[in-house]
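Lab notebook, bench 4. Still working through the backlog of constructs that have no structural model yet. Next entry is a single chain of 333 residues. Request: give me the structure tokens for it.
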Amino acid sequence: MSHTKTFVDVALCLSGRSTDKEPTSITTVIDEYLVDKGKSRPISKRFNPSSLYHLCQVERATRIKTDNWSRDEGDAQLSRYGVMGTAIHEALQNNLLASIPGKLWGKWECTNCHTTSWGFRPKPCQDYVISSNEKTMISCEQKGSWHYDEMYFQYKDVNPDDERYWITGYCDGIWFDQDTGKWYALELKTKGLDVFDGVYRRKGKTEGVHQEVVKQTYRSLPFEDQIFQAQLYVPLIMDAVKKGLMPEPPGQLGGVIVLNICRDNCRDLHSYIPYDPTHLNSAVAVMKAIMNTENPHTLCRKCPKPTSTYAKRCWMAHECFPDHYENPEKNDY
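Model written out:
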């Protein structure tokens, strides 16, 4: 077979219109995968610290009353943010922060033999595993490494028998500060440049209840949803220690440290937040209001107007804004 291209082929190629079939865009393949993955994953019935602050109470209460936990469609862009955020988290936990002695405390797992250890990152594991053909020993020191295993918490005190009343989530770590001698729940946040700069500009501009937080913040004040989420991890850690689900950190928890990382330029902003136990009470009050309501539309909705970003992709926008959105069921034949 001749591989010689004709003059027409070369001309079309130079003009961007080749006669050869071009491969499917990798971007398209990734988007389709993320959308399909999003559709196949049901919405959790449990409450999560990362979503409680921005939770649409109307939408959540409606899901509970109708027992509808399916996703209408996946969002490729949001999924991309999640994948990139997870990658940055793992790079920080397992490479940068873990390499600093005596700082990042938690649960570690050997990637070779799967032994677990609580504390700061241990010295290289001295164990081994037997190969699948049972002929050789695979040394953990040569083939394995310690991987930081984010702590998973389940707060069930509201109703231990009904998972719809549980608060579950992962804490990014526990951090030790030598200057204060205290331990802090660590919350890592990845942001785009615009949002990251918005966090930085908030320094000293918030009035009222967070004014004291501004004074005690090293560089900037996180957004309220970040404060609310991070504050919940302190009582969740205390609850897990009390119930014997994890060892107690060597010292008292002094609050929360939020580390915002910019995805675009790798800058970071460090914020210290004193512990405030009222956030857990607020979260529990929201959960009970959602579970006990007879009419979801008496609760607080997330979207202030029908043109908001969330309303445009909400499966029940036609109920909150009937003059703006048509009920999709009317089109079913």
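Notes after review: Residues 203-219 have pLDDT under 50 and may be disordered. The CA atoms of residues 187 and 258 lie 5 Å apart. Flag for follow-up if needed.
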